[in-house]
Amino acid sequence: MDLQGSFHVYDTTLRDGAQQEGLNLSVADKLTIARQLDGLGVGYIEGGWPGANPKDTEFFRRAAQELDLRHARLAAFGATRRAGVAAADDPLIAALRDSGASVVTLVAKSHERHVELALRTTLEENLAMVRDTITHLRDSGQTVFLDAEHFFDGYRSNRAYALEVLRTAAEAGAEVVALCDTNGGMLPDWVSDVVHDVIETTGARVGIHCHNDTGCAVANTLAAVDAGATHVQGTINGYGERTGNADLVSVVANLELKLDRQVLPAGLLSEATRIAHAVAEVTNVPPASRQPYVGTSAFAHKAGLHASAIKVDPNLYQHMDPIGVGNDMRLLVSDMAGRASIELKGRELGFDLSGDRELVTRVTDRVKELEQRGYTFEAADASFELLLVEEVEGRRPSYFDIESWRVITETSPAAEAVSEATVKLRAEGVRYVVTGEGNGPVNALDAALRTAIGQAFPEVAKFELIDYKVRILDQGHGTDAITRVLIETTDGESSWVTVGVGHNVIEASWGALVDGLTFGLRRHQR
Amino acid sequence: MDLQGSFHVYDTTLRDGAQQEGLNLSVADKLTIARQLDGLGVGYIEGGWPGANPKDTEFFRRAAQELDLRHARLAAFGATRRAGVAAADDPLIAALRDSGASVVTLVAKSHERHVELALRTTLEENLAMVRDTITHLRDSGQTVFLDAEHFFDGYRSNRAYALEVLRTAAEAGAEVVALCDTNGGMLPDWVSDVVHDVIETTGARVGIHCHNDTGCAVANTLAAVDAGATHVQGTINGYGERTGNADLVSVVANLELKLDRQVLPAGLLSEATRIAHAVAEVTNVPPASRQPYVGTSAFAHKAGLHASAIKVDPNLYQHMDPIGVGNDMRLLVSDMAGRASIELKGRELGFDLSGDRELVTRVTDRVKELEQRGYTFEAADASFELLLVEEVEGRRPSYFDIESWRVITETSPAAEAVSEATVKLRAEGVRYVVTGEGNGPVNALDAALRTAIGQAFPEVAKFELIDYKVRILDQGHGTDAITRVLIETTDGESSWVTVGVGHNVIEASWGALVDGLTFGLRRHQR
Fold first, then answer.
1. What is the CATH number of domain A7-283?
2. Is the ipTM above a cut-off of 0.85?
3. pTM for this model (two decimals)
4. Into which CATH architecture does domain A400-456 fall?
5. Which residue in B344, B292, B342 sits closest to B318, CA to CA?
6. A230 touches chain B (CB under 8 A)
7. How far apart (Å, rounded) are the C-alpha atoms in residues B303 and B367?
8. For residue A19, how many C-alpha atoms fall within 13 Å in the half-sphere facing its CB?
9. Cβ within 8 Å, pair A410-B413
10. Which of A7, A321, B132, B149 is the most buried if burial means most Cβ atoms within 10 Å?
């Protein structure tokens, strides 16, 4: 399938999604999310606004070196040239041109009042800005999409001018004109009418960009596609300013599973649940359990009257087979989907479990029980592998015995806080009592632990803690909350993620640290 | 306006909404929510299933005595009589009849496969069950609505039979036949087609009941209304099984504000934000900040470039005036913030900065400088307000002087980790040395700090830490990372968010804790 051709699935999580309140992405976060989006098979990933934002400039620089995308093309986002300046002389246009992205998505005003009030220029000059900028970028070899900002409101205010902006863009060589419901106030029938009119009047290839302010972002997007749009914009998990953007997973699932239009490479939609949750780990926004298709509750049934009927024919009680999006019906999870995915995951890690039904059941049950308590093995492959080894070999890999640990953080006036940890343990028959310092309690514990164990196992010197994430589960009860910690450890060649859970954030971190060291030692001993 | 007449707004939060995973309502909770729903002006409140569930029987008993509804009528929910039993002899039908509710909503099967598999009876007997039950309840003086379960799937499977169920109900005297998308798989155009057909074929008054499995519950409901449905069912905050029911507030707001159909008593929609949040307090489900119309982020703007245009005409940047649903436009202060957005934000917080250019510059510069160091004021309004007061009044509000603090977390073999904090400070001329314990280091510090300050300022007893978020900035360097902590504190009436930043997570948390207490004290002192 020609992914960048007949139908565009265009993700703007890294740009418009990042406008969400409280969502802040580092360059490393953006690179990680881009890899996940590519794994979902989207056709385009909008990476940000190079030139306007140093972080985004850096993202495109690193993306060119580090990202090896199999499905998606990167798009740089930016505005039309400034009023009264040649496109070639506008440094922001130069940044788009030099971003390394083969696609540029240009935002342009299409609402007369916004031209006057926000751009403070004339309607004529705005058209020239659209024309010149597209021509300039096209001449430099880039594909150009136009985002017509506030298009629907602009169309209501001055239809002729709004259409003129699109026509100008198409004539200058924009491949797509995306109609943006920037303020999010549209309803499906209105979107449908406007898209029909735009296609009929301008003949341009139309895209759609919706926000969820009326609770209709997904339906509005589908209405546009039904009316002829062949380019849909959205974000993973519906991230975005105010009420969010159209949730790209819901849009794509509806198109593929409800409307029989294949818009992703075959088979990739079944990665959606995993990817939606993995992205949520990076953004640190707790996933919505009621999210359509990929939410943990999306296929959960309170067993009741109908349990036996569900067993006879589950499809009477679900609108689709959840496997299509990689989710599970929860009522049946223990007999079916759970086991299968444990087996698959085992194979991925080099354990053939297919011959041992009882073992698979045991592992499945433990995973369920631990996830009930707040663990997640989605991201923490290394902790899962340790659990698997424990069940396969009958005992958990262990290279040291902890006696006790303690960590103190304190300040005095006008001084920075310091943390100091003391760890007592035995390794290779020797007892170690070691104190370590750090910028925080976890760093201090990590330092003490690695110093102690490093005396018995010198390879530990290469290990380094490179990422640390904390998630408070069970919000609403500050003091009784359960804390989940994910820690990424590297040995300089590869890295692995472990998980710890507890009422006490330090205890949860300790569990993840111990798993991280154990996993690394096991890998090096083999 | 005749609320129970021309158009029905029918709330099922207390019955179908309560099917949500993790949502459990006591009888007292249900009575409180019913009062709130009445305050919103809905026409009908479905209270539960008397007879099938002791809690619901109790609810109807107490509702008859305690509820004094001004707008709504109570509806009892129940199933058609059992197969092979006269309606008058079925105890569950008797419970509906004797519930005291003037309206009964009867759920009936309209999908042939469900009749066979779940009811295990014949298609004929199912029709008789519908006919007899409605006749019996009508004869006892009750209004009857029919909920046709799995209607859309049933219609696809056997259109003639599904329609026959509706016709039978209407002929027996059901005032409304509500078409239920029980599995939630529909899209707007499909709903529209079916509703048109039902009205044309049966002439019945049609209602609509949607679930959000495709992310289209609101749009599906609107499509049904556009096709002629005059009864809409939904729940507050979209509570419900799986992905939830249609969010009644979004449905009503779209009908009133977008489609000019008044469906609530005049003026009551502007209570929606308050009521949606009040109900969330009762259900203890954290409100979704991105919820359309009533979410705390629904009208929040990262100002940046357009703040000056927002000042001239806010309606260019919002799809409606948030006052219509009792919400507010909020400007988020972020590092893209210019002077204009600082000025607007100041006004929001009650500070007129427009006359003092130099002050605005100073605040803008400090925000930029602090955000550079990792702070964020977007979510942390309270910390921003403290900064603003500091610049306006020349000194930061301060009610206590910290001398030092220390926190210890330790374990011994087979014991849970414990945290213990000691804080030394002066308040109102007295020196306090206080130790606190907690589930984690921050809880322990919080306990010690509040105990110490509470001796000088008793109002602190009401304060509680309700949310705690940690974010590691600058990933890739485990030990040098900067940590940002956001803390939400409540005094039982409102809540506020503060931010702290540091290399040491404990120190960052400490900063946010101190800001949280300072902000609360300032509010209570004024």
1. 3.20.20.70
2. no
3. 0.76
4. 2-Layer Sandwich (3.30)
5. B292
6. no
7. 14
8. 25
9. no
10. B149
